[in-house]
Every structure is written in structure tokens, then in C-alpha cells.
Specification:
Number of strands: 26
Largest sheet: 4 strands, antiparallel
Number of domains: 1
Helix content: 10-25%
Radius of gyration: 21 Å
Number of helices: 5
Shape: globular
Strand content: 35-45%
């Protein structure tokens, strides 16, 4: 065997050893992914999201979540730590307050305090006067390392998701990196936390979720809807009534990764699919060793977010009411939608603008 042959043989052995044994932060678990549904029937491809109005966000990106206050002002969050504001009747978004870290979910309470699920910090509150406080950093003695979405229920309590207790968004340098690690491991580290603003205490309402993400409440406050991103489904968790404390799957086997969930108008609940599902991850769901090998590949060779716009509205029984798409992904990584009387605002993990579409253009 000549030198060149020996060299390439040695190189192949080194690569094989690297792919098999190099340490990685994930320890994938075996699970049975459901067969991905075709984009047909209720998920028939369309281009309803392809034409939208772009609202500039001052050179920033990633308007991850959206909400409105009692005056109809629109608020959104960015990668740069800002909460931005679009005053009612205006088309110019302004910087309102920088909370540090990576603010994700936001929600107003009756006193018009803004609650923030900050992935790097925990649960924050911004008073009407602009004072920022950190309200919760742990639950059951376990640190909150990936606060994701938040809702204020009619009972005054705050419910928010801690997407992963293992993969810290701050330690991973950004939220996307941490989410990809959690999803490829499928270790069920997500939870839904209840915070009582009166007693300043936290308790865990749901646990063992594969990347707990969006959370919203019904108008009556009798249940929560929760997006479990890594398992492609939406849960209903009962807060009141005979089923209080129980959880049931509301809609499953979604064609993408569900993100934020928001209560809309006329009984609608909106959620975004950040990306279509990964066939590789689904095919290897019961092969944790091979998923670990994938994690050793260069980042550009691993499954990642694909540009595709997709938001869905369901009713409280899980029936699909609207399915809005843009296969070209002109507004990519759609995390969700916020509905007002006249507009549907679209949030995104990565977009450099905030998008909105007139509801009359969408036919409702």
C-alpha cells in the first residue's frame, strides 16, 4: 500500500472515529414519530401569506411574539433585546424598552403591566412606568433556562413555558441553537409554569414536554392551549371544571413545528409552524445513535429551519378553521399570528420586518 492510499485510509478512520465517538451535548432518546401528513386536504398548499405589508423594525430582526395593549398599540420583541411599539393608527414602529437577553413571549395584564418570557433571564415584568423587574428564575428548585411564551389568564395568574430545562438558550448563544439541541434529543425537558403575582410563587402545571413552546388561555380561563414543538402537537390543559389539572392532545401530527399559540377573535386560536418537519429526524426517531451522529456533522449538514410560511387557526375542539401558507417563505420562520379587528400580524424567528395582512384580503 503506497503512502497516498495509507493517508486516505487513515483519514477515513479518523473521520469514522469522529462520527462515532466525538463528544456532543445531546443524548438522543428513542421515540416513535408519526408519519408526516401530506400537504393536502385541510393543509392544501396555498399562497395566502405571500402578499403582506412590511413594517420596518429599526434594523433589528426576529419579531418573535406580538401582543396589543388596551389602547390597541402593537408590541413585539427582537433578538436585540428590545420590545418595540407600534402605536394605534401609526405605521412607524418605535423602540420602547430594552429588557436585555432575548425576550420572546409578551402579554399584558389588566393593570397594563407587560409580562415578558425572556429566554436568557426568566419571567420579567414591565410596569406602566417602564420599571423592569425579574419575577421568576426557577420552579420547583429547577432554574428556568429557556422562558419561551407567556399568557395572563383571567384569574390573574401568569402561565409561561420553560421550553427546556436542559438546554439553556443563553449557554447555547441563541434560542435557535438550544431549540435544535432539545428537539434532536427529544428528552422531554419542557414544562408549563404557573406564577402567582400575589404570592410571588411558581408551580409546574405541565411537564415532560418535548420543547414546550406557545401557551395561551381560553377567554373564560378554564383551559390553556400549549404547543409541544418536538412532538408536532397542541395540548389542552384544563385549569377549571371537572377535568382541572388534566391534559389532553387537542390536535396532533402537524405538518411542521408548532410555535406560539394566541387566542384570536370569534373562537379562533392561531399558531405558527416555524418550519416544515425534517424527514431525516422523523425517519431516525427510533435510532438515537444515528441522531447523535448527525449532531457531529458540520452545522450546514444538520436539519435546520426551512423557509416556509405557515400559520393555522383552530377552534377549541381542534378543528382547523384556516390554513394560510407561503411555500416560497417570503416571510420566513413564522412563529405565530396576532389577530386584531382589521389585521393579522405575523411573527417570525428571523425576519428583519414585522408583517401584517388585512383580514379582508384573507376573506374573514
Amino acid at each position: 500500500m503506497n503512502f497516498i492510499a495509507k493517508f486516505f485510509l487513515s483519514l477515513l478512520l479518523i473521520i469514522a472515529l469522529y462520527l462515532v465517538a466525538w463528544p456532543v451535548p445531546v443524548d438522543p432518546k428513542s421515540w416513535d414519530a408519526p408519519t408526516q401528513p401530506e400537504l393536502a386536504g385541510q393543509y392544501e398548499p396555498n399562497s395566502h401569506l405571500s402578499e403582506f405589508d412590511s413594517l420596518q423594525i429599526d434594523g433589528m430582526h426576529g419579531p418573535e411574539a406580538i401582543t396589543t395593549n388596551a389602547q390597541g398599540d402593537v408590541y413585539t420583541t427582537t433578538h436585540e433585546g428590545w420590545v418595540l411599539r407600534l402605536k394605534a393608527g401609526s405605521n412607524n414602529i418605535e423602540r420602547w424598552i430594552n429588557v436585555g437577553g432575548r425576550p420572546l413571549g409578551i402579554a399584558f395584564d389588566e393593570a397594563q403591566n407587560l409580562w415578558v418570557a425572556n429566554a436568557f433571564i426568566g419571567l420579567q415584568k414591565i410596569t406602566v412606568e417602564g420599571k423592569i423587574t425579574v419575577e421568576a428564575t426557577s420552579a420547583e428548585g429547577v432554574p428556568i433556562v429557556y422562558a419561551d411564551d407567556v399568557v395572563v389568564a383571567p384569574n390573574g395568574k401568569i402561565y409561561f413555558s420553560d421550553a427546556s430545562t436542559k438546554f439553556s438558550a443563553k449557554e447555547a448563544n441563541n434560542t435557535l441553537n438550544a431549540s435544535l439541541l432539545d428537539i434532536i434529543e427529544h428528552g422531554l425537558y419542557g414544562r408549563i409554569i404557573e406564577f402567582d403575582p400575589v404570592t410571588k410563587t411558581t408551580s409546574v402545571r405541565m411537564r415532560n414536554l418535548s420543547f414546550a413552546n406557545g401557551v395561551t388561555s381560553s377567554e373564560a380561563g378554564d383551559f390553556l392551549l400549549v404547543a409541544e414543538t418536538g412532538s408536532y402537537r397542541i395540548w389542552k390543559h384544563w385549569l377549571e371544571g371537572e377535568k382541572a389539572g388534566e391534559s389532553e392532545v387537542l390536535i396532533s401530527n402537524l405538518p411542521g413545528f408548532p410555535d406560539n399559540v394566541h387566542r384570536g377573535l370569534d373562537g379562533r386560536y392561531w399558531f405558527g409552524l416555524t418550519s416544515p418537519r425534517s424527514k431525516i429526524l422523523d425517519d431516525l426517531s427510533e435510532k438515537p445513535f444515528l441522531r447523535k451522529v448527525i449532531q457531529r456533522l458540520p452545522p450546514f449538514m444538520r436539519p435546520n429551519v426551512e423557509p416556509y410560511g405557515h400559520i393555522i387557526a383552530i377552534d377549541e375542539m381542534g378543528k382547523v378553521l384556516f390554513d394560510l401558507q407561503d411555500p416560497e417563505g417570503a416571510y420566513p420562520a413564522t412563529t405565530g399570528a396576532w389577530e386584531t379587528d382589521n389585521y393579522l400580524y405575523l411573527s417570525s424567528l428571523t425576519a428583519p420586518v414585522l408583517a401584517r395582512i388585512k383580514k379582508t384580503k384573507l376573506g374573514f
